[in-house]
Amino acid sequence: MPVSTDPGITQDELRLAARNHGMPLEALRWPITPVGLHYLLIHYDVPLVDPAAFRLEVVGAVGQPLVLTLDDLKARPAVEIVSTFECAGNGRALLEPRPVSQPWLNEAVGTARWRGAGLAALLEEAGLASDAADVVFCGLDRGVEGEVEQRYERSLPVAEALRAGCVLAYEMNGGALPPQHGHPLRLVVPGWYGMTNVKWLSEIRVVTEPFAGYQVASGYRVRQTEDEEGRPVTRMRPRSLMAPPGIPQFETRDRIAERGTHLLEGRAWSGRAPIARVEVSVDDARTWADAVLLRDFDDAHAWCGWSFAWEATPGDHVLCSRATDESGDVQPLEPEWNLGGYENNAVQRIRVHVD
Q1: Taking 80 as the threshold, does the pLDDT of residue 119 lie above it?
Q2: Which of 9, 158, 311, 348 has the smallest C-beta neighbourhood within 10 Å, fewest atoms?
Q3: Over 90: is that where the pLDDT of 2 sits?
Q4: What is the CATH number of domain 239-354?
Q5: What pLDDT, in 10s, does the model give residues 305-333?
């Protein structure tokens, strides 16, 4: 691991933090995150899109290219899912040394109800070529990243695009997509980190070679050095977060609580398998006890709730929770460093003073 040369939060990072925002952790108490509280990351600018002039094109290695209006998409059979989104860089600012980018702590998450047209049916209608390899999703937002001028583009292998339950969403939580969440159309890929869910989607391009665009081949890869090829960031690792009990100290967000019984509550999720267990510690991960799981949704890629009764005694405490999914993957106690600060699912720690 490199030696820390952390200069502190830079003005460039403050600019990113001012236009992107996390979900306040007290919002974990809502099964569906209110739209204005859902985490938000915008790579470039929010494009101004006229819904009446909008077109989605399906092109490339297909037998029948398609050009669809928003009304065309709404006329197709609707699919509705509840899906949890988490930014791949969630927890980045807790790493040491700290990767310099959007300085997320633990709050880059949210769960919404998405409604739209099914992707698999659309691809089947277009007719995939026998040698199709990847499906590329292209947004209307443009910018420069890694010294590359680009539109935001991500891809999925053909098999994943057909079987993952992807939705071309035009509604969020029962209303039209807001501009910052991709109006008028975005991709929703259940279980994958947030960068896969391309906003302001305007083109689906089927290609016969693995996609080598910046956001797949250069960005969003887990590696230790710039020279390493690394591995791609894909599905979310298991994670649990707790809604902080008591009241906050303004500057530090440390908590102050009264002695007695507190019902600790939180949410847990994994993009790889359903959550099987959540454990809670009130002594900084020295001992653990099982929480009660609360299944709010049938959707496999929506978070589940949990609760735990804590008998708070006077003094200082550090509260933690950790999730285990059905594949046996357990949250680590300490973060696993990588150059981009991706997939940091180390357990959350909340300092509480009981008076």
Answers
A1: yes
A2: 311
A3: no
A4: 2.60.40.650
A5: 999 999 999 999 999 999 999 999 999 99
CA angle 272-329-297, nearest 5°?
45
CATH fit for domain 11-232, picks 3.90.420.10, 2.30.30.40, 3.20.20.100, 1.10.8.110: 3.90.420.10
Provide the token pair at 207: 């290609």
Q: Is 214 helix (H, G, I), strand (E, B) or coil?
A: helix
Of 105, 108, 88, 82, nearest to 305 (Cα)?
A: 82
Q: Is the pTM of this model over 0.90?
A: yes
260 pLDDT more than 90: yes
pLDDT tens per residue, range 180-227: 999 999 999 999 999 999 999 999 999 999 999 999 999 999 999 999
**What tokens does 174 get?**
């029962």
Report the alpha-carbon distance of residue 195 to residue 332 in Å, rounded. 23
Amino acid occupying residue 254 = D
Pick the closest to residue 140 from 194, 189, 202, 60 (CA basis).
Answer: 202
How deeply is 334 buried, as exposed, middle or buried, from its count of CB atoms within 10 A (0-12, 13-18, 19+)?
Answer: exposed
Domain map (residue ranges) of the chain: 11-232, 239-354
**CB–CB of 129/158 below 8 Å?**
no
Per the CB < 8 A criterion, the answer to whether 45 and 143 are in contact is: yes
Q: Which two tokens stand for residue 66?
A: 């398609």
Residue 179's φ and ψ, nearest 5 degrees, are: -55, -45
Pairing of β 255-257 and β 260-269 = unpaired
Burial of 9: CB neighbours in 10 Å, binned 0-12, 13-18, 19+: middle
Nearest Cα neighbor of 298 from 116, 33, 81, 29 is 81
